[in-house]
Write a structure and sequence with these properties.
The chain has 7 helices and 11 strands. The protein is of the alpha/beta class.
């Protein structure tokens, strides 16, 4: 098995190292990660300017070759797909230092890299956990991977978004939930404003375990199949009778 690793916390993000240590047991690993943190970059890419790509010995102690890419996580995948080919079995992105749940999936650079992998025809999984928990989360990677492979989940989808809580009580196959985090902008002086993130879900309120947001609050690893195609199929079906020839 050939695996490409990336993340949005940067080449020296501890979550990436834990992911690399675990991934080695699955097969050949190569790393292409951002030079600097790229959180919140979604699937953004650099178009008009050149950017630096250099070899790195950051994972030499693990026997893993790596490159540092001074661009977004999606750019890391794009560069490798173009310059090295797409003969990777999987792209794993993470382990992100912070959940990527519900609507926040759209903002996530971690998930953005996985979406980009799907664009290139490579199956992908993004891994995230609550802040400060990447080491503990890495101990559950084999548990999650066994769930994915034993249920042949990748036979039915191209991308999975995985979120690992601090205390794991099981694994649930989930749907994407709604808003989990929200920003409140506070005055930082001199016409400057800073986003102050707060949790929208009531931890002690009723939970619907169909959704990734609620599953992690209940202590489950959420495994969510995602699509890159954003076509509203329901709308297409309802509007299919509309004639376009006028």
């Amino acid at each position: 098995m050939k695996i490409l690793l990336t993340n949005d916390d940067g080449l020296y993000g501890v979550g990436l190292r834990y992911l690399a240590e675990w991934s080695r047991q699955l097969g050949e690993v190569f790393i292409a990660a951002p030079k600097y943190e790229q959180s919140g970059r979604s699937q953004g890419i650099v178009i008009h300017e050149p950017y630096e790509v250099i070899e790195s010995d950051a994972f030499a102690d693990l026997g893993i070759s790596a490159i540092s890419v001074d661009a977004s996580p999606a750019d890391c995948v794009r560069f490798v797909a173009d310059r090295m080919g797409v003969d990777f079995d999987f792209v794993f992105s993470g382990i992100n230092n912070g959940y990527n749940l519900g609507h926040d999936i759209a903002y996530s650079g971690t998930c953005g890299a996985a979406f980009e992998a799907n664009y290139a025809g490579i199956k992908a999984a993004s891994f995230s956990t609550i802040r400060g928990n990447t080491k503990q989360a890495s101990t559950y990677l084999s548990y999650v991977w066994d769930y994915i492979t034993s249920n042949s989940i990748f036979d039915h989808c191209g991308m999975l978004n995985v979120n690992i809580p601090e205390k794991v009580g099981g694994i649930l196959l989930t749907e994407q939930g709604k808003t989990f985090f929200r920003d409140h902008f506070i005055d930082a002086g001199e016409n400057m404003y800073k986003a102050d993130v707060y949790l929208t879900r009531d931890v002690n309120g009723p939970l619907d375990l169909r959704y990734d947001t609620d599953a992690v609050l209940a202590g489950y690893c959420s495994v969510t199949p995602l699509l890159t195609n954003r076509t509203d199929r329901t709308a297409i079906e309802k509007l299919s009778a509309i004639k376009t020839d006028k």
